[in-house]
Structures are given as C-alpha cells and as structure tokens.
Amino acid sequence: MASDAPLVRSGRALFAVPTLLGGQAAKAGLSCASCHINGRGNPHFLLAGVSVAPGTADVTNSFFSAARGNGRFDPVVIPDLAMPGKIARGTDTRALEAFVRNLIVEEFGGREPTPAMLAALAAYVRAVRACPEGQSVGRRLADQLSAVDDGVAGAQLMIDRADLQGAQLSIAAMRHQLGLIAERYTGPGLAREREGLLAASRALQTIGEGDLARTGPALARWKDQFGAGLAKRLRGAEGRSLYDRKRLAKSLR
Ligand code: HEC
What we know:
Blueprint: H1 6-15, H2 23-27, H3 32-35, E1 56-57, E2 76-77, H4 95-107, H5 115-127, H6 141-160, H7 164-184, H8 191-209, H9 212-228, H10 230-237, H11 245-252
Antiparallel strand pairs: 1-2
Heme C (HEC) binds next to helix 3, helix 4 and helix 5.
InterPro entries: Cyt_c-like_dom (IPR009056), Cyt_c-like_dom_sf (IPR036909)
Domain Cytochrome c: 6-129
GO molecular function, one term: electron transfer activity
C-alpha cells in the first residue's frame, strides 16, 4: 500500500519496469518489483546463480554486472521495504537516493538515472506500507489498469520537469503493464482484446519516440481513448480471462 501523490505514483511505475535495470536483469525481464512485490519482499523469488533459497538474492552478483560483481556468492533474504532496514530513509541525508542510484548503475549495470527519476523511486520506497493484518489478494485487472495510470501520471511529471529519459521510461512502464494484461487474455475468444492491447502499445511506442513537447497532449489523448474503449472491453471480458482465479488455476495445472 502506498499513497497516491504524483511523485509516488511515478516512482511506483518506474519500480516495475525492467529497462530501468540494465544488462542481464533487464534481459531476464527483472524489475525492482520482481524482487520487492508491491515494495515488499518476494518469498518465491528463485533465480539460479542469484538465489540460494526461495526469497533470497545476491544483488552484488556478477550475473547482473560482470564489471562490478564482488566475486562472492552471498545471497541474503530480500528485505521488505515497508520495514526499517540498513539504509536510512530520511530526506535529510539522501542516503536512499544514493543507494538506489548505486543499485541501478553499479549492481545492475543500468543507465544513469536522472535526479527526477531518483526522487520518484525514493519517494515510492518511503511510501511503502504494510497492509493491515498482512492480507494478500490475487492480482486483478483493476490493479494493472491503475499501474497504467501511474505510468501516465509519471510521464506527465517527467514532462513537466523536461526529463526526456524519465518520460520515455514511464511510457515503457505503461507498455510493460499492457503486456502483463495481454498475458492474462489468452485463448481464441479474446483475440480482439489482445489485438487491441498490441495496438495500444504500438501507439504508445510512437508517442514515446516523438518530440517531448508533443508527448503530453498525445498521452492525454491516448489515455482518453484507452479509458473509453479498450479498458471498458477488457473489464467486460475479465471473467473470461486469467484474472479469473478458477481459470488461472486450471491453466497452471
Ligand atoms: C534480484 C532481486 C532484487 C532486485 C531486482 C532489487 N532488489 Fe532491492 N534488495 C534486494 C536484496 C537481496 C537486498 C538486501 C541487500 C543487502 O542487505 O545487502 C535489497 C535491498 C534493497 C534496499 C535496502 C533496504 C534496507 O535494508 O534498508 C532498497 C531500498 C532496495 N533494495 C530497493 C530496490 C530498488 C529501488 C530496486 C530497483 C532499482 C531494487 N531494490 C531491485 C533484492 C533486489
């Protein structure tokens, strides 16, 4: 659970996009959220050469960054970011921003993040809270649609700060979420929805490659169209998709 301030939403979008991390992590489709689901831990995370047991990872592993790996295999339990940890979270020292920057560039071999991107990621990490009584629910279409909205809000914030890299990554985050939705709309009866998702993602790609000055209005139009058209159709067909718990369980059998 986290607040809905624009900076937090922007950070939440970036947290879930694999291309924030570079090299092997991005190729494997890993994002911050793969290890820290909703900013928490991930008891099921298991990657050969990176984990020693489910829920552990070695982030200083040469798997992620050949140049920077410390040469030792020392996985630890993935921490829950809702809990106080080793890294001070206060805004006075900016230790969190420095840590996240180091993680992206040094450990994962990613591209240097901009100050606005770091501010957003740190704001999100600071906002992560545990749910009351540790409740846990399956992912619904609404969660993924709200993640798409986070991407729109994040892109707008980056555009306002004239941050091209941050805006492009926010759009990549939206496309990543559309891809995750498409994975749940399998089967011949849902071909139209899948095609719609692909077309929406392509339209975003074109917007992301355009001039930053035109990106804001183009995104606003995209969002209106998406909300009035495809998002409605997806909601209507949610019961026939793998967001339906019974269908999902059956497909995994
Ligand atoms: C491969 C799994 C993995 C990925 C991907 C990952 N982390 Fe982590 N994260 C860890 C592990 C393991 C630790 C504990 C490291 C330690 O204690 O030495 C950690 C520690 C942290 C901490 C410090 C928590 C504390 O103790 O205060 C923060 C903050 C954090 N991660 C944020 C992020 C962000 C932001 C990203 C994306 C840029 C990210 N993580 C990506 C596994 C991961």
